[in-house]
């Protein structure tokens, strides 16, 4: 009886310990990256809360995450740092964007992933960076952060520009992005309704069917013949050509987004010094 009593006491303790281990283990493994990672101390607590609220609205629209990270540490490559920061925070090719404010090297960089690559085209990105750069030079750090979120929200609301495409800066490969406008969707719907109506009227006039009484004599008019057929591939040809890299004209062709690969993901973006 004493042995049974001891086991009965130890077993609940074992379950409790296992529960705590799983709970804290999962919490540590799936901890989310904070929206405003202010390592350089550029913002007040009130400003951080305001920026977090603005980011939350954008996150809901894009079904992803947007971030700001500030630092005073030495960063050899703002592009690589931003890409890897975003990659660790949301995963490869997920929807998101991060603004890096590097106070040590006086650099700023915006990295985009997923659908944000298409929303933040080269021309939109350059316009946004111009405004952020101006505020960073005048030490208006909170205004610069607000411009970042305000521009992202505007870009998402406007949608992906017509004729948009992605250009891989390393290979020159161009990927077209097809968007269906509201007018095109309405025209397609109306055309489908008209065609289906015309088809119905023609079939009704041709056969003069009386629904519910007509039966097709399928047994008398049906037949099936099977034949053997064999196809042989005689020869095949593959033609390849290298697409030249786009010229660096600043605007990226209006609706285009220049991309690159880093750490298993595809990213867009760019940066400036201030």
UniProtKB/TrEMBL annotation:
Gene3D superfamilies: 3.10.310.50. The keyword Transmembrane helix applies. Residues 241-274 are annotated as: Disordered. Residues 249-274 have a biased composition (Gly residues). Residues 37-150 form the TPM domain. InterPro entries: TPM_dom. The lineage of its organism: Bacteria, Bacillati, Bacillota, Bacilli, Lactobacillales. This is TPM domain-containing protein. Keywords: Membrane, Transmembrane, Transmembrane helix. The keyword Transport does not apply.
